[in-house]
Write a structure and sequence with these properties.
- By secondary structure, the protein is an alpha/beta fold.
- The protein has a single domain, classed as Ribonuclease Z/Hydroxyacylglutathione hydrolase-like (Metallo-beta-lactamase, Chain A), CATH 3.60.15.
- Helices cover 38% and strands 22% of the residues.
- The protein is built from nine helices and 13 strands.
- The strands form two sheets. A seven-stranded mixed sheet has the order 1-2-3-4-5-6-7. It has a six-stranded mixed sheet with strand order 8-9-10-11-12-13.
- α6 runs antiparallel to α7 and α8 crosses α9.
- The longest helix has 23 residues.
- The radius of gyration is 18 Å and the shape is globular.
- The structure holds zinc ion.
- Zinc ion (ZN) binds next to loops.
Length: 281
């Protein structure tokens, strides 16, 4: 494996979580006559490594790639799938066609100076060619796959992939098992409402875009995390505290329950971002 440190877990017959510790996960669903992937990963070489892993599992063609959302680390491998139908939310397509938003991400990725930063400059953004607004169902290899949209949250176009017969759910970056999501192009108040709807989807296990496979209780905790952050920021605004004071207060009050989560160090700047977003309404 060129990208290393990946682990593939079979969640149900023909349904796999491809976990990449510290980086981005992908889902692999093998049907009767083709494969559906969930996310194409961060740069083309990561997409090619994913394809190599699929070839170890099956020689069936990859027919669909579902983008959980527009973020670079989930969708910038899309160009490696020219023969597949790329599915996503209409808003995710719009975000990927938003030159300014993609430039913002590219600047962040390049300036981080990671192993993939140079390659990121070569990416051809390839948005979904099949989009939907609220819900879409695929009947794929004898299995029902529901693609669900519950409103804005981590981005404006986050979708959830639900396999009702298997009790499985793929949550993208909206809700992880014990991990703080990136929030700085998110919609914090909408996020709570989206999490509430997500919590109603029956599942036994879920795979997020980052971190380990989780159980449903972790989805409730992910919701509690966003609620705590939004409530803390709203209290700071209501009390007339300034942005930086509020962000520090929110971080301190959340650290007891959530301080052990992956990425907790990003809470303070995320709370500051939330403060600006919530203050203007
Ligand atoms: Zn994301």
């Amino acid at each position: 494996m060129a990208t290393g440190d990946t682990k593939i877990i079979e969640l149900a017959t023909g349904v796999y979580a491809r976990l990449h510790e510290g980086l981005t996960n992908a889902g692999i669903i093998v049907g009767d006559d083709g494969v559906l992937l969930i996310d194409s990963l961060r740069v083309p070489s990561f997409g090619r490594d994913l394809i190599a892993d699929v070839k170890e599992l099956t020689d069936k063609p990859i027919r669909y790639v579902v983008d959980t959302h527009s973020h670079w680390d989930h969708s910038w491998g899309n160009e490696e799938f020219p023969d597949s139908t790329i599915i996503g939310h209409a808003n995710a397509r719009a975000e990927m066609l938003d030159v300014e938003a993609q430039r913002w991400w590219l600047d962040r990725v390049v300036s981080a100076n990671d192993a993939w930063s140079e390659e990121a400059k070569t990416v051809t953004i390839t948005p979904p060619d099949l989009t939907f607004e609220d819900q879409m169902s695929l009947y794929f290899g004898g299995r029902q796959i529901d693609l669900l949209y519950f409103g804005r949250a981590h981005t404006s176009g986050d979708i959830f992939i639900h396999l009702p017969d298997d009790g499985l759910l793929f949550t993208g970056d909206v809700a992880q098992d014990g991990g703080v999501p990136f929030m700085q192009d998110g919609y914090l108040k909408d996020w709570v409402a989206t999490d509430n709807r997500l919590a109603e989807v029956p599942c036994e296990q879920f795979m997020a875009g980052h971190g380990p496979v989780g159980e449903p209780a972790a989805l409730g905790e992910a919701r509690d995390f966003i609620v705590a952050l939004v409530d803390g920021v709203e209290a700071g605004i209501a009390d007339g505290r300034d942005r930086d004071t509020t962000a520090a207060d929110v971080t301190a009050s959340m650290s007891e329950r959530f301080g052990g989560w992956r990425g907790f160090e990003r809470v303070e700047e995320s709370a500051a971002y939330a403060y600006d977003q919530i203050k203007v309404g």
